[in-house]
Amino acid sequence: MSRFKAVVAHAPLVCAVSLGCGVDGDGARGRPPASATLTTAYCCDSQAFSPAMDVDAKFLVFLPLMSGVQLDEQEGILAERWDVTDDHRTFTFHLRPGLTWHDGAPVSAHDVAFTIELLRHPDVLMVSPAGVLPAVVMDDSTVVIRHAEPTDPVQFWSWYVIWPKHLLEDLDPAALYDWAFWRAPVGNGPYRFVRHMPGVMTELQADEDFRLWRPRIPRVVLKFSQSAGLTELLAGAVDVVEIRPEQALRLEGDDRFRVYHSYHGYMATALHWRNDHPLFEDPRVRRALTMAVDRHWVIRALNLPEATPVFDGVYTHRQVLAGHLPPALPFDTGAAAALLEEVGWKDADGDGVLDRAGMPFRFTALVAGADLQGAGLLVQDQFRRVGIHMMLEVQEPNVTRDRVRLGAFDAYLGGFGNAPGGLHFALGDESRIRYRNAAVAALVREARTEPDPDRRDRLYGCISHHLHDDPPALWLFPQVGMRAAHRRVRGLRSPDRVAEILSLRHLWLEDDTAAVTDPEAGSTS
What we know:
Number of helices: 13
Mean pLDDT: 89
Oligomer: single chain
Number of strands: 22
Low-confidence stretches: 1-29, 513-525
Structural class: alpha+beta
Helix content: 10-25%
Shape: globular
């Protein structure tokens, strides 16, 4: 067996915060002043901690077994260490001693086994019962989790949090998503639940007895005003809000605020070709279409961060955090025209549109939602300059998804998902864009069950090497997330510490009149 030792002192973002319950709004501990409160514009109201939404607010209440992938780190949270069998299917987790739920009950291996059984329950099915087998409790602090296929435990168990068996075991799993427990949760982390005001906010307070680290922000408020979040930020009603790229323009020149950006670890925005379509079946055409678009210009026109990378291929979460994305084909309209002419596409009749054997180079691209229409119009303009006529058909994302599944499309603009578990839908044997490359499909199958992150990175590099010559899509940019925060919120940084909930352990609040010092680094920022 191989053994991984947890290092709590440097636990990364995914487990940055957890909260518990049982402290009244005016309880014995007292309420910290407003200046010691982080208020964030958030969604979900009474479902903020529920698996019905499964958003990152759950990490304000419950702890996972281990942290998420932050470059090459593997670190435990509830688990002090874990043993892995050589086939990477069986994991023995040894829990930290002395951890308790906020009602005083001990956190134990029985909570872990109960949570896994609940996730596998036929009325819940948050994980596949065929993929994750029933957990086995060895003793109060040791639990064995078995998978049907080789698994990277950090990829899997850093997202699922553990729930208290003693409070939930008698509840009906069929009603899990509606349990009252989610509206006043009992947690086991550094914060405690205080109160919930429906439609207004949820208040959380730091637990002075938490043992793993000391929260530096005494009070957190989730304010349910996400749709009006930027207005609330400008008015001083919230400290942090998720924004769209175009909204960042409203903050330019206002030194009260800072804008941060991150890249989605496994999702990019791309124009996908139906690879068996007569227009796109030749890989030379698909290469030409990529080289015909100035993607840096598209990024600037959409007001995305100037540092947003251009690339061609797939990448892992670790690679995007490290900035190791596959190289891009160049923007070169001359080379694009030469490739198209090589395949037989010329403007024979002088109407500005390329044609071949009397067929014009015209097609329709489905656009998955109005938010992507701007990107579609920019690409449309770039294609027009080289004699290609692309029409746009904007549809709801679910309609686009159904059309793609049925093969009723020429091309579509939407998310390119390249997580190991779903890459086969684009590039593998089940490709919904009709991509056929035997070498790529074999690599995708291998990457899907590869538990070693270093080897998985290398497999993704091999896949991208093939895609450079045989691209299935025109990648435009990684999906970008943006946050705007008041300057008193310190510790956020682009691109790896942007989501304030996941980063809360690393954040602190500064008085505007005080010197700005990072307590972690001991330096003025």
